[in-house]
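Input:
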Amino acid sequence: MSAETNTAIREVLREHARLPVDVDTLGDDADLFSAGMTSHASVNLMLALEDAFDLEFPDRMLTRSVFESVGAITAAIDELSGQNGHAA
Amino acid sequence: MSVVVDAERELLLEVRRIAAEVAAPVADEVDRESRFPVEALDALRSADALSAAVPEALGGAGVSLEAIARSCFELARGCGATAMVFAMHQIQVLTIARHLERAGWYESYLREMHRDQRLIASATSEIGTGGDMARSIAAATPSDDGGLEFEKQAPTVSYGAHADDLLTTLRRAPDAEPGDQVLVLTRSEQMTLEPAGAWDTLGMRGTCSPGFVVRARFAPEQVLPTPFAEIMNQSMVPLSHILWSHVWLGIATEAFERARSFVRASARQKPGETPPAARRLAQVMADLALLRGEVSQALADFGASDDDAGRERLMTMASVLRFNNLKLAASEQTPLVCAGALEAIGILGYKNDTPYSVGRHLRDALSARLMVANERLIATDAALLLIAKEA
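Output:
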């Protein structure tokens, strides 16, 4: 997982997760929901990630745990990029 | 296994008897006076029905969700309010049993709950959250005696004044975000419920669900270990929609059966002629069949989810949509069936004092669209549809 992907994910988070704190104060393992991301904001986050990375999360991945941290999102995008052959 | 099957058979026989012999005879009085159905709850306690779903290892009968759902249906044939109280209590019991993660305090609690047949209410809604159960204002706050305490403004606590214990959503700590919630069980001797308003409603009058200001002091062990976000998706929301909809199906079925009795009585008076009401009854039967189909299928879908993979599936948006669909469909369909039964019966159904009265059923059924407002569920579904791929 490249540093650019991490930066790109954080950029989408800053734009769409509507966190009450600066996303850069959160580590890759920090729980975004505990940090104040609502389920409504998480839907917007998912849409924005699909757009930014040009992929689609299948239903099995549309769960809270997949989007609960920068690290978890990274793992999900890695998995899908591998499948799709995208170089994210 | 066969012990559990026997326990389920015995539970259903008892519940059917209680519905017909204890709940039904006073259902109109409970409704008229907006009073708690104390006779039926006493009878359910005597039958150990309140702890029927407590796992066998903790002293209960360990009956299946199917048996509990069927019990809700049967009770609702006799009295909708009694059935709703029973359903809500079972939602709390099943939720605790599914998420106690071997926590010692909760294991002892369930044993005691079985022994004393304690009734559990819940305070999951809160003034100021706009009806969103996924957010809390009240927080688990350290108290001066080294334990925890909270004060919560609850707009409705069903049978709050009649319950032994209370399951409450709170923010995890005073500095936690509104969505960072835990579930806490407090016992009657640990809390005070200060009434805030009355319960004089169109229907479901016997559930006695006014608002309360709840204040409690409790030990840290009384916080359920699983985060509420998980409990909500894996248990509390789908179980609520499943058991509520079985109550609604029972109410609709009773209204339909009253219409059927009316039509039969009319037919006997004029042999050889099909009474006009029979045509309306045939339409109502089709509406009832649709309701029954969705309620049964949802129960089957949840039943297929009872392992680790299943619990993971319950966390998906597809699953949230599935059980929201149940709630939307059942809460729309139930008043439709009751109103159809009323039309088939006519004035004898509209009057409150005939064997064919269905006014109470229709009024009780109208609560279905409001307990968790359908408008809120539709807004949630609309957002999820933007991203969910199936269903």
